Each structure stands twice: as C-alpha cells, then as structure tokens.
Amino acid sequence: METPTSLDIHPDNAIVWLEDKLYLLDQRVLPLEARFVVCGSAADTAKAITDMVVRGAPAIGVAAAYGVVLGARARYAADGEQWRRGLAEDIDLLAAARPTAVNLFWALERMRRLVTDLDQLDPIPALLAEAERIHVEDIAANRALGELGAALIHGPTDIITHCNAGALATGGYGTALGVVRSAHAAGKVRRVFADETRPWLQGSRLTAWELQQSGIPVTVQADSVAASLMARGEVGWVIVGADRIAANGDVCNKIGTYGLAVLARHHGVRFMVAAPTSTIDLGVASGADIPIEERAAEEVLACAGTRLSPDGIEAHNPVFDVTPAALVDYIVTERGVIERPDAAKLRVLMETADA
Ligand code: MRU
Description:
Helix content is 41%, strand content 18%. By secondary structure, the protein is an alpha/beta fold. The protein folds into two domains: 11-140, Four Helix Bundle (Hemerythrin (Met), subunit A) (Up-down Bundle), CATH 1.20.120.420; 146-354, Translation initiation factor eif-2b, domain 2 (Rossmann fold, 3-Layer(aba) Sandwich), CATH 3.40.50. The chain is globular. The protein starts with 14 loop residues before the first strand and ends with a helix. The model has no long low-confidence stretch (mean pLDDT 97). The chain binds 5-S-methyl-1-O-phosphono-5-thio-D-ribulose. The site of 5-S-methyl-1-O-phosphono-5-thio-D-ribulose (MRU) has 17 residues, from helix 2 and strand 9.
C-alpha cells in the first residue's frame, strides 16, 4: 500500500506529500471547488487543522505527523544538531490545533517518541518514513475494518450515516464509509441517507460527494428527518465514525450522533461505530472526561457565509457529543469487532492491538 503522490481530485487523495510539502484537499470548499492548500511549515499545518481544511479524526492525525516533518526540516536547517529544541514547540502547536479527536495526539506521540529515539544527524528521512507509515497504516486499518463491518450487514438495506467518516476524514478509504464501500461491493447497500450535519454540513457536502464518486446511491436529508425515516422500517443500520472512544466504550463523535443512537435503539435499528484502534483512548475512563470542542457561534448563525440570525443573538456550538456505550451495538476496528462494548472488552481488544 502506498501514500498518494499526485494532485488528482479524488476523496482517496486528500492528503498528499509531494516535493517536500504537504498538500491538503480543501474540505471547506468541496464540492463546489476542488483545490489543494499547500502547507510548508508546522504552523501552516496546525492552522489547516484548526480551520478544517483537513478534518476527521484519523485525517488530522496523519496531517499532523507530516506537520512534524515540516517542523523538523525547518529546525534542522536553522539549528543543525540542536533541531530538537524548537521542534517540541512545533509539536505543541500541532497538538493545540483541535482538542477532541484523540488520533491527533496519538500520531503526535508516535512522532515525539521517534524524535527522542533518533540518533542519526539528519532526522528528516526517518521522520518522513514514520509519517508515511502512519498514513498507510490508517488506510490498511480502514480496509480491514471495512470488511469486518460489512460482514455484519445482511443486506440489501438502507443505512443512515452522520457527518463524514469517509476517505476525506482519514488517510484514505474511510471508516463508516469504508464499511459502506465494502458492503456496497458485496451488494448489501440499497441506499445511504446522509444527514446533512448542521452546522458545518460535512454530510451534504463531503459524504454526498464521496459516495457519488464511488457510485453508491446517496440521499441527503436534514438531520431531523432520521426519526421518521427509521419509523418507516426500511433502515437497517446507523453507521458512524468516532473522534474518541473512552475506556468504557462511550463514543464521542459529531454532534447529533447521540440523538441518532437514541432513535436507533427506540426503532430497533442497529448502531455501528467504525473506527481504527488509534481512536480508542484507554486514558479516559468515560465520555464525561473527553474535552468537547466548542467552535465559533458564527458557524451556527450563518450558512455558507450568509448571516441568517438577527444581530446580537448568541449561539451554542459544541461540535461533538458522547453516545453512552449502552446505546452502541458494535464497535468495529481493524483488530476485531466488539458487540455491546464495555471496559473489559475494550481492554482485551487493546491488549491484542499492543501484542
Ligand atoms: O469536526 P469534524 O468534521 O472533524 O468531525 C468529524 C467527525 O465527527 C467524524 O465522524 C469522525 O472524526 C470520524 S472520521 C473517520
């Protein structure tokens, strides 16, 4: 498996390392515009993550790993043997870019460990190789969990997904949409209903574009349609990704996921969370310990850059919520599937992952 090396416009080609620079397919403007943002420094990369040029838990981890390479290159050019001193600041800057998705900190920790261990003078080849490993391992994990998730589905069925947990949100292939892609290839998907995902519209813009590119039937719906759609009885599954899974199996994901899980349980629809093990954080006991990012009020008060609410109005914009483990039927990872997650099952899975 290889990392992308061209600037073709395709969901699987959203993070590209080319000629010593990082190219990120700009997710703020897709699908109306298809353009890459070029990052030449760790600071550029941190800003791209904060501004959501690149978004989605595994994708920001991969981008941050390349950001460390960019930081190290500048520090090595400026300070020679002392390159490590300033690089710690670059890594801290990248870690501060967004607070919720643990994959960001997981990837930076891998890079930080290598920085400590390296003994050769020029650090760039080894750091770049590690960033590329993080990238290709994520693609491989998504393909593996895609197959495992698809095996649980006895189609053909309708599926609801929320936000965008596709190739764009990962190193490639996707988590929730990886399951959808594998299930579709096996003839098990009738149609995907993509929640539009207010306020940032990851569903109507990004998921709709990705699924259309893959030839998978997709219908965009307002987030509030899910209840009545489930009541019709044709939806077999809700399949979502995750930004962080706590030690007890609570799942933090895009705001609105918790409501979908409640609806799914009420209507007898199965609820699947698809995520690589890099999303599991045994360091947080439950979802209550996960920091929830609050973004600018303007994201809610305006739509596509046009202010719609009256001046002087406040907005509440937490961008993630926590679904209690008790509402989750399956967590699907590259290392295996957990049914009805709890702390003991997650511990066993992670011990296997560390073995
Ligand atoms: O704010 P975003 O767009 O970064 O949020 C993304 C999500 O919530 C995704 O569902 C999650 O990161 C899983 S991506 C494979």
